[in-house]
Design goal:
Layout: H1 6-20, H2 29-37, E1 42-43, E2 46-47, H3 52-66, H4 73-87, E3 90-92, H5 96-108, H6 113-123, E4 124-126
Antiparallel strand pairs: 1-2, 3-4
Helix pairs in contact: 1-4, 2-3, 3-4, 3-6
């Protein structure tokens, strides 16, 4: 499994802000590091997020809810999660509208962890190289 670094997510954030507007800057570097580390979390030697879908959910939810950046947290979460899936041989296959709706549900707490993991499983496809 390949994971994103805080530096990679910061680069994604910077590019998104340049392209779509908003304020540059990190609000809390510790929360950024926590968000990118969460998919790797273990307890008792076992992965807390045992599959790619749960790991993607953990990354996305943490980037949204930790709010590590001054602006653009949801946009950064979407793009970073997409890259995380891609570097691991998967892609999100959903409309922009569905992705935005799902992201807002994550941000407001309307999407339960169980339903969110199911959503990722439903809309994520293995890339055949």
């Amino acid at each position: 499994m390949k994971y994103l670094t805080a530096e990679q997510v910061l680069f994604i954030h910077s590019r998104l802000i340049d392209e779509t507007g908003g304020s540059h800057g990190i609000r809390d570097v510790g929360l950024l590091q926590s968000a990118v580390s969460r998919p790797m979390a273990t307890f008792g030697g076992e992965d807390l997020y045992p599959d790619i879908f749960q790991k993607a959910l953990a990354l996305m939810e943490s980037l949204i809810k930790n709010h590590p950046f001054i602006d653009g947290n949801k946009r950064t979460a979407i793009s970073s999660t997409g890259l995380f899936l891609r570097i691991n041989g998967y892609t999100l296959e959903t409309s922009q509208k569905e992705l935005e709706d799902f992201t807002l549900k994550m941000a407001t707490g309307e999407a339960s962890v169980t339903n969110a993991a199911k959503w990722f499983k439903q809309y994520t496809q293995k890339i055949n190289f």
